[in-house]
Specification:
The chain is of the alpha/beta class. The protein contains 12 helices and 10 strands. It has one domain: NADP-dependent oxidoreductase domain (TIM Barrel). The longest helix is centred in the last third of the chain and has 17 residues. The radius of gyration is 20 Å and the shape is globular.
């Protein structure tokens, strides 16, 4: 495992994060308490430090399991959890409001058995809460010592960029990272979110690194069975499987090594999960090596997203000729990652 700073902060995290969505889950792809602890031991033994959870994962059971694991070693881990999605179906329990944020954090602290959260994510944009209210509530919790850093998960790029601007303008703590769906077969984040993160020095944590099991291979129970995988993802997986056979790598090796940006400067921290400790060891081994540059470029071309308007227009040779003259290429500005 390697380590990096998360966005515009001094927070050091491992370059692979671990997600606990299936901890305490009773479905066939879930993980019970004992197996979950073995998985976390394996993750820690490999140098992993960034554990991600949420209050709605198995109705709070995932946070409780994580809390039991870190009880006597709290300072060894960066614990990230979320607010917005509540296991309580009452109309006042969820959403982005300051009331929900404060109540959710207090409940998470109890389940986690700790007095602070390293990284609190707004889980997803509810479309109703004023951004000023959200940012002021984050500032309040950071000032109170209950939260160290915050970020945005599953939120439009324009909202995150506005949050950074407002935070800096008012002298409040600013977000340090975004969490987005990102994998070889789900690259929509390249349209707006990844360029924004690079420009504003935000860390990026990519959930769905293995596309809910579609890129992991094998036949163990998956959160999204094969028959429920969308056609476009199924076709991409088939193409990538052929490339994997051709270049002598497994499908998980292609998926994870590309995502980690080894050879390509994507700067994304993959968020992986596991059903067993042995499965986690296999996944970590798959991400431990590097791919040749030509392989990276080949699989990137195979799964390249359609960026659409205005990106395709302004990148067209027709407009670039007017901006830069004939046969001239100007490299775009890139912020520090």
């Amino acid at each position: 495992m390697k380590y990096r700073l998360l966005g515009y902060s001094g927070l050091r995290v491992s370059d692979i994060a671990f997600g606990t969505l299936n901890f305490g889950e009773t479905k066939d792809w879930g993980v019970d308490r004992n197996e979950a602890h073995e998985i976390l031991v394996t993750y820690a033994d490999h140098g992993g430090t960034l554990i991600d959870t949420a209050p709605n994962y198995a109705g709070g059971a995932a946070e409780t399991i994580v809390g039991e694991f870190i009880a006597d070693q709290r300072e060894r881990f960066v614990i990230s959890t979320k607010y917005t999605a509540s296991p309580d179906p009452h109309v006042l329990a969820g959403g982005n409001s300051a009331r929900t944020m404060v109540n959710s954090v207090d409940a998470s602290l109890t389940r986690l058995g700790t007095d602070y959260i390293d990284l609190l994510w707004l889980h997803f944009w509810d479309g109703t809460t004023p951004l000023d209210e959200i940012l002021k509530a984050f500032e309040h919790l950071i000032s109170a010592g209950k939260v160290r850093y915050f970020g945005f998960s599953d939120v439009p790029a324009w909202l995150v960029s506005r949050a950074v601007t407002l935070s800096e303008l008012r002298g409040w703590a600013r977000p340090i990272a975004v969490q987005v769906e990102y994998s070889l077969v789900a690259r929509d984040a390249e349209r707006e979110i990844l360029p924004m993160a690079a420009a504003l020095d935000l860390g990026v944590v990519g959930w769905g690194a293995m596309a809910a099991g579609a890129l992991s291979g094998g036949s163990s129970p998956k959160r999204r069975p094969s028959e429920k995988i969308p056609d476009q993802i199924q076709k991409a997986v088939e193409s990538l499987s052929l490339i994997a056979q051709d270049v002598g790598h497994s499908l998980p090796e292609l998926a994870l090594r590309w995502l980690m940006g080894r050879g390509l400067d994507s700067g994304v921290i993959p968020l992986i999960g596991a059903r067993t400790a042995s499965q986690l060891r296999e996944t970590l081994a798959a991400g431990a090596g590097e791919l040749d540059r030509d392989v990276l470029e080949r699989i990137a071309r195979e799964t390249a997203p359609i960026l659409g308007f205005p990106h395709d227009l302004i990148a067209s040779p027709y407009l670039r000729r007017f901006a830069f003259g004939n046969d001239n290429e100007i490299r775009p500005f890139r912020a520090r990652s």
